[in-house]
Amino acid sequence: MNYVTVINQVLIIFLLLFVGCGLFKGKLLSEAGVADLTKLLCYVISPCLIVNSFQIGYSQSLLWEIGAAAASAFGVHFAAMLLGGVVFNRRTVRDPDTRMYLRFSTIYSNCGFMGLPLLQAVAGSKGLLFGAMYVGIYNLLNWTQGISIYTKSVSRSFAVKGFLNPNVIAIAISIPLFIFAFRLPPVIGSGVRYIAYLNTALSMIVVGTQIAKVSPLSIIQDKWVWVGVLFRNLVVPVLWLLVLYALGMRGVLLLCCVLPAACPTGSFAVIFAELTGRNTRFPSKLVMLSTMTCIVTIPAVILLEQMLLQLH
């Protein structure tokens, strides 16, 4: 993968992001409209994108790569859980809410709204395929372990949401279709594909509206926001890149396993704060700064990956 190509695609993604920011600032898109778009993305467009990504030719080697992508997704989340728990403890971060937000941010990236468009842009159908596995596992863990960071326990309702998340269901449906080389009927397949095409633009518009809600000046003096972004945007993806490289992973698969982990803090940092009645100011600042700085950090991680591959 050409590094310049990655830079260009990141810039395109950010152009779409600022469109969303402008629409929200100009009051052409309301809070209610953003909420509706988010539901549309989570419950309709993203599942269609996953199903469509699995509508490709079956091969044993590709099935092995899908399994490797799934294992990597589990691995990076569990490694980030351990890292966040060790680094952001009661002695290093006194405030319990700040500690909680930092731990969540270290683990959960914006792999759906930002990761899938980027993977599609830089790696095509394979990128979507591997990204779909990451997003499915992300949703499963996010609605179980992720929400427990805020609630201190995993309730049955949230566990059910994790297992019955539309993206997890889409993967459960898509994998057998892929293995048995079953193609959706042309009319249905075309409909699913057209809906899937909506993902990139709408995802970035929604992310852009989140940025529009926070004043940049409120971030500058908050050191913990910068620390959280450092771990989310650089420490976790770089460490995971080195682990996967040491294990022998190369090529497009390596890129597609690292790129979702290099995405900025996920919007669920704010959503879960709202669900549990907590102050959303700090997680909103995390999301904003993490998203704004990833225009530099994502290419930096990919550049490191390219440099490692040249050594091989």
Automatic annotation (TrEMBL):
Main location per the UniProt record: membrane
Source superkingdom: Bacteria
GO cellular component: plasma membrane
Pfam families: Mem_trans
Keyword Iron: no
Keyword Cell membrane on entry: yes
InterPro entries: Mem_transp_PIN-like, Na+/solute_symporter_sf
GO BP term, pick one: transmembrane transport
Family recorded in the similarity comment: Belongs to the auxin efflux carrier (TC 2.A.69) family.
Protein name according to UniProt: Auxin Efflux Carrier
Organism of origin: Ethanoligenens harbinense (strain DSM 18485 / JCM 12961 / CGMCC 1.5033 / YUAN-3)
Phylogenetic lineage: Bacteria, Bacillati, Bacillota, Clostridia, Eubacteriales
